Amino acid sequence: MWAIYKKELKTYFLSPIGYVAIGIFMVMYSIFFYLTTITYGSVFMGDLYYATARYGLLLIIPLLTMRIFAEERKNGTEQLLLTSPRSVTSIVLGKFLAAVTVILITLILSIIYPIIISFFGTVNIPTLIVTIIGFLLVAMAAISIGMLASSITENQIISAIITIVVLVAPWFLVDISSIFSSVDLIDKFLKFPSGLISVSDTVCLLSITIMCLLITIVLIKRRQAVK
Length: 227
Prior knowledge:
Blueprint: H1 2-14, H2 16-38, H3 46-65, H4 70-75, H5 78-82, H6 88-110, H7 112-118, H8 125-151, H9 156-173, H10 199-226
Helix pairs in contact: 1-2, 1-6, 2-3, 2-6, 3-8, 3-9, 6-8, 6-10, 8-9, 8-10
C-alpha cells in the first residue's frame, strides 16, 4: 500500500495536478476569507471553511480523482497494476490516502489565516480544530466518491462530471425527498463549524467513505477476475 501511496503522491507533485488543486483551494479560501472575515471583521472561521467545503471541493475533488483509475484504463497500464503482487485493496487505499494527503496539505496551509487573525482577535482553537476535522471527513467522503466514479470509466472528463453531479445533486433533490439529505456531504458538515462533533454525521461520512471504497475494490476485483 505504501509503495502505491508514495507513487501516487509523487505523481500529484511531479505534474501540475497537486499544485493546481492546492492553488484552487487557497484562492477560493482567500476569497471567502475576504468575504466572510475581512468584510465583517469576524474572527469566526466556521463560515470560511463551510463556504470553501461547499464550493471549493467541487473543483478540487474531481481534479484529484478523475485520473486515479480512468487514466490507468485508458493508457492500458491498469492490467499491469492488477497483475502486480499488490492486492487490489492496497492499491485502492494507497491511491485514496495520497489524495487525502493533498487535502491535508491544503488544510495545513490554511492555518496561516487563523494565525494572522490571532494577532487582531481571539481565535477559538477547539472550534477551529473541530471544523478542520469535519472538513477532512467531508473531503474523504468526496474523494471516495470520485474514486468510484473514476473506476467505472476510462474517460477522465466523464469521471469528473459524475463526481460533481453526485456531490451537487442532493442539494436540489432534498426538496423532493428528505432521504437525499443523508447523502448530502455538506449537510453533514453543518455542525462542525460550530465546534460540535456530531456522532451521527461523523458515522455517516465515514460510512459513505468506506462504502464507496469497498464498491471500488469489488468493481476492480471483478475486472481483475475477467482479465
